[in-house]
Structures are given as C-alpha cells and as structure tokens.
Design a protein that fits this description.
Strands 5-8-9-10-11 form a five-stranded mixed β-sheet, with helices on both faces. It has a four-stranded mixed β-sheet with strand order 1-6-7-2, with helices on both faces. By secondary structure, it is α+β, with helices and mostly antiparallel strands. The protein has one domain: Lambda Exonuclease, Chain A. It contains six helices and eleven strands. The longest helix has 29 residues.
Amino acid sequence: MTLHVFDDLEQGSDEWLDARRGIVTASVVGQLITPGTIKAASNDKTRALHAQLAAERITGQSDHVFVNDDMMRGNLHEPIARDRYAEVHGVTVQQVGFMLLDGFGFRLGASPDGLVGTDGGVEIKCPRAKTHVQTILTDQVPAYNMAQVQATLVVTGRDWWDFVSFHAGLPLYTKRVLPDPKWRDSIITAATNAEHAIRSMVATFERIAADLPQTELVPDFEEITF
C-alpha cells in the first residue's frame, strides 16, 4: 500500500479537484454502501456515481458544484469548530489538503478536516440546529456520516477518528470512532466494484465514440461573457 499525502492542496481549489478526479473518495463512498446492512450497494445511486466518475476520467473535468446555504455555513464555521475542538481536547490539529491510498487495485481518497498527533484525526460537520440536537440526543455518529469517517480511517491507516458536530451557540459534540472491520471490508468491496464498473464504462465509451464526430469544447455558462 502507498499513501500519498498532499499537504499544500487547498480544499476546493483546481489542484484539489485534479487530485481527486475520477476516483472514489470518502465523501461519496456512502453512496456505494447500504448503511443498514453495511454492504456494498447496487442501485440507481451507485450507478449514477459510477457514471459521474467515468465521465470525469473521460473528460478530465469536474462538474461545478453549486454552493448552497448549508455548504456555505460549513465552510465558514469549520475553522471555528476546529479551533474549539483543539482547545477543548488540548490538542494540535494539523490541516492537510488530500490523502490518496493506492494498492487495492484502485485508488481511494480522503480530504481530512484535520490530523491529530500520529494516531488520529477529526471529521467536522456544521449542520443545522435540528440535526445537531438530534446527534446529541442519540449520542451517535449519524449513519450517513459513518461511511465517510470509516473510509477516512481506511485511507489514513490511523487508529481513531473524532466525529465533531458544531452549531454555533450550542454545545460541541465529539464522538470517537475506531476502525470497524465490517465497514473496511464493505468499503473495499464497494470501491472495487466501482473501479470495475468505471473502467468498463470508459472502455465502452472509447470504443463507441471512436466512430462518432467530435464536437468543439465551449466554456461553461458562468465563464461566457456577453
């Protein structure tokens, strides 16, 4: 196994998008797994992700992501949450742009919100008040976040990962997550299935497209000036 660490990549930058283009990452691996059974899924959602990653490999481009209010709040509040987590737990949080594990026959990536010491890390979510309160009430990592945390543990090889939920004005919530062999096996199976599907799509596209007339690339709408 080879772990590539990109310390200087700014998350969201063009260079960051280049590094993760066309591969399964921790942020999307949940679309490939059924959380209730912790088994690799095969449904419309998984097939859509396969097609998206295949298109990224074919075009060498990533679709622009619309930044909604929830994403904007997360971007603004994450540094505050990181500092508060470090203060509460008496640790130093090291930021890193992207980490890429190569060696399973596919590449698996993760963009950690922070590394803690040599053994751990942190995943920060800044949800709406309702979701934050529900997380505290259940005292569990939400099912839709667990796949990302476990996949990050697979990529980094670390011993633990702290899930942090932050909503300004409410208590900070932290839950330590340890590697789960069942999740690890499911993630590896799902990512393997994805790699096979993506390669098949790319090969089929190249075969069929070879006989089709090429079109000229035009700028995205937001880049067109009138």
